[in-house]
């Protein structure tokens, strides 16, 4: 059981100027499942590999249980890692794969066998212990990789996109099993994914990275409710939040025919900084069709059965913007219709630099 | 992801292309036979009387093993068959073991932990093969003489090791480069030492490549003639020199020479046959990615 702490940890690859991970500060509690999420090139995998000891930490430090592991080799960190392609040893059987770390640690053969069988039982792998990895399905290989990590009962589990090689259905199923397993074992887990749905559904807390910089770390709900900046606002949530640059007139944001009054703290901030344009954000589920409001022509209807997302082409100043509005599955709207919509939930306001205007 | 996939079975070709396919297949067989024919004739000659072998080409004759017993029992040359075979065996075996022992760490370093300018190092290895061996024989001979190595097996072991090393490093490097990096990282995390990573994780994966490389080294060393005849023409010499010693000044003993050639070729052919599958798999390894 362990806590993990990144202190201003940076990784600068040789021959590059910009750090792949830039002064990362992050505290991970004992027993927590923390997800690192971000688009490709955001540094999430690098951050994980720094914790694993597979990447050099050029600046700052990393602690596991208050022990500075910055300069320790991977084998001295008491961690286990599951790789995206599982990295099973092809020449060894499932049992040998799972027991490999124990063998290196000099655990006796009987003890090893017992621990491997126990892990195999947890993961339903008992019938496959004598098979080679090439004779397993993708899902089974994934479980063997999990088993290899479990057998050692390490301080921290590191997961590098462990589900991305599975098909969609299996991925959703394994996602649940993995979260359940983590809760049962009560082990600290750092999980890397590019999939924000995976991040939101699995993480106790989610750390959003972009260009090597930590954007925000919070519970999934708080990320959804109060994204700290434009990037998080656009990245978290599916379909993505509508984000539109709008003029501010008389303390209200103007979008087509819709006038959205700014909350007091936002209005004060806008006045203080003398902004005449801000970025207005509203999730599709927080907009609704109405008799008055912003209006435009329906460009696309995405029908999902229980609900539909309609893309409304709003004329806005000199430009047109597509605004996505969620409607009930029963709503009869088709392409080409003229509709109006208004606010029916939370709204977000960001300055032109992308920072939240009612920030703390 | 299977690391090694077997080549798929050929699909039956349909329609018009079928004729072309058959013509091409026939042509391939013809060209193949054309190349094989001299070897076939050599083997055939080995089973003939000298008279039959030297007369106009004869396909049907009374086969005899006499020439084989002649060349293996007689010691008309400086060197008996058993001596030459023994010399070849030990020289090839020891030089190949040395080559592999040196090439594996070198290939590991170049493929898995490359340092700056590793390409230059790799090029340096192969550049040692640019100089025609004839151009180097004079200094080699003088060095061997000064070190009292002329006519010893040691000189051939040293030279064959040096001769095969660049090739082995190149081949093994490309096999090692195929090992997924994550496997080595997983082994590191699992607490495996450097030697453990090589022995338990990397070598089992590149085993077909090792076999292919070793076999090529064996073949090249077994067949080497020039260095053997220049530096070690007498007691300690090898099979190719022994075959040449079967030439006689007293006339044309074609059948005898053929029998000797067959005996010299046989071990390599058998080794190649046995290792065929592994070797092709090894040589094809680089083509998977």
Summary, kept brief:
The complex is a heterodimer of chains A (360) and B (289). Chain A is of the alpha+beta class and 360 residues long. Helices cover 26% and strands 34% of the residues of chain A.
Describe the model.
The complex is a heterodimer of chains A (360) and B (289). By secondary structure, chain A is of the alpha+beta class. In chain A, 26% of the residues lie in helices and 34% in strands. Chain A is built from nine helices and 19 strands. In chain A, the strands form four sheets. Chain A has a six-stranded mixed β-sheet with strand order 6-7-8-3-9-10, sandwiched between helices. In chain A, a hairpin with a 3-residue loop joins β15 (287-303) and β16 (307-316). Chain B is mainly α and 289 residues long. Chain B folds into two domains: 15-66, no CATH class; 79-285, Orthogonal Bundle (MetI-like fold), CATH 1.10.3720. Classes of the chains: A alpha+beta (360), B mainly alpha (289). At the A-B interface, β6 and α2 of A face α8 and α9 of B.
Secondary-structure topology with pairs:
The complex is a heterodimer of chains A (360) and B (289).
Chain A: E1 4-11, E2 21-28, E3 33-37, H1 44-52, E4 59-64, E5 67-68, E6 79-82, H2 94-104, H3 109-122, H4 138-151, E7 156-160, H5 168-185, E8 188-193, H6 196-202, E9 205-210, E10 213-218, H7 220-225, H8 230-235, E11 242-249, E12 252-255, E13 258-261, H9 264-273, E14 277-282, E15 287-303, E16 307-316, E17 319-328, E18 338-343, E19 348-350
Parallel strand pairs in A: 3-8, 3-9, 6-7, 7-8
Antiparallel strand pairs in A: 1-2, 1-4, 4-5, 9-10, 11-12, 11-14, 12-13, 14-19, 15-16, 15-18, 16-17
Chain B: H1 17-46, H2 50-54, H3 66-73, H4 81-112, H5 118-127, H6 133-146, H7 153-177, H8 181-189, H9 194-223, H10 226-231, H11 239-245, H12 254-285
